[in-house]
Please model this.
Amino acid sequence: MAALMVPDGQTVWEVFQRSESPLGAYVIPGQDGYVRYRSDVPLKDILYTDVDDHTVSRSLAMLAAEPVAPFTTAVKTTAKRCGRIPRDYIVFTEDRAFPQHSCAVHTVPAPGRLIELPGSHFRFLSQPGAVAKALVQDYGGEVDLSPPSPPIAALLAVSAAPHIFASDGRRS
Model:
């Protein structure tokens, strides 16, 4: 969801650069092995275009530097292992972090589907219930977003869906 799928032999950084993201101009690889953004990066305009100011403030307080190695290490996949695992790629059509269609459409490996939902990079913060509902319904399920609250109901609905598994095969 709103992420990169990196083809065999390429790095996240290479795919990110081809996506023509406005974030690329603000990335600072640190000497300490971490990637940070310059202080003048307009994150609200790039990541949070449809998110309310209170949620943006709370989210920004949780952002941290990321290790540089995952950005610069080439991905190694094989058709036998990676090519046989079905996966879906969820694109938020107004995502400015890295314009999804400039990279996602060409990197979603088969078998898999490209699912498009309206919204910004952090659509799951602005409309968590709508995202959960779209995902669950896409798999033929139903979702009730009545109280306790839309975000909690959204999490419950997604966690109850039989297709959601952690990368090690456990239900997540």
